[in-house]
Amino acid sequence: MHGVAGAALDWVRDNRAGFVLPDDVLEPHTDVNRTMKPLGELAQLCTTVSRRTHPGDPHHTIAASLVRFAWQQVREGELLLDLARNEPFATYPFEIYAAFAGDGLRHEGFERLASVVATTRGWALTEQHANRELGLLNSERRIGVPPHTEAEQVLRRTWLGGLPEPWTFERASGYALTHVVFHVTDWGNAPHRMPDDIAGYLSTWLPAWIDGCFENGRWDLGGELLAVAACLPDPPPAALVETGWPVLAAVQDGTGAVPETGPPLVRDEAGGPGVRPGAPRVRDGGAPGGGAGEREAPREFLNCYHSTLVTAFAAALTLARHSPADPDSDPGGSV
Length: 335
Fold this sequence. Notes:
Elements: H1 2-14, H2 36-51, H3 58-73, H4 78-86, H5 92-101, H6 108-117, H7 121-124, H8 130-143, H9 151-155, H10 171-184, H11 196-215, H12 219-229, H13 238-251, E1 281-283, E2 294-296, H14 305-321
Antiparallel strand pairs: 1-2
């Protein structure tokens, strides 16, 4: 996992130009899904990697530098204040700011505006899916404004909170449940906030769901589920670590990138992960996490930035949970 995480972080650092915001980011025609969303994900996931690794760890150094880069992109919060002024009831500037606030980066003007907007009836009555509302509640907690509703009630309205039949798991519910867990546990920094019944349900069914994702070439969702396993009160079991992580190592290319989706792996004779059929290869001296002596051709940024970030995030969480001195984990608390 150290090698996989390091290669993934190296790729993100080497490709950080893909996260640079355009000059017209405040214009109405600009697609926030291609501008603010990737930058927000960079800030959130690297904040967690930074918090869950020790200062002397190279992973910590890279993640912390990427958080500072993202903070510079939002002009140390000033851009987020501009976005919030333009769209006072949009939640994404609030959630992106909360990612930085979780790392101690603050902007007084943004927080003054947020403290007013968050007390309005319009803010409390914004209609959104329950898993998205949990994200807003966690952001309120991070920023320090009063929560607009009870998190436990919202949690029980989600697909995961209802403990559904495990065979009803599919792509949409999978991504929804991973973010429910991330929001409830503050992105893995407070695993004991997860209620016991949901933690037990996930512990039972995560191995099967992860295996199904990897069998179908859904590397991004499989990586998120590995991160979920590291967000629960008990550390991920050794069996899950030993079966899941070699798969992501096998699909990571020589640049450190991990694809979101792709052809499933062909199992080798021993039942372990092999290689994907028909994958483009170029020769080099070796690939971190990949086959010796060859690697895949470089990937497109938009098709792999999220899955590569998720891989680094999940690895950092898993390594921290198996460390005798976890650097930053809230030992208790509730939803």
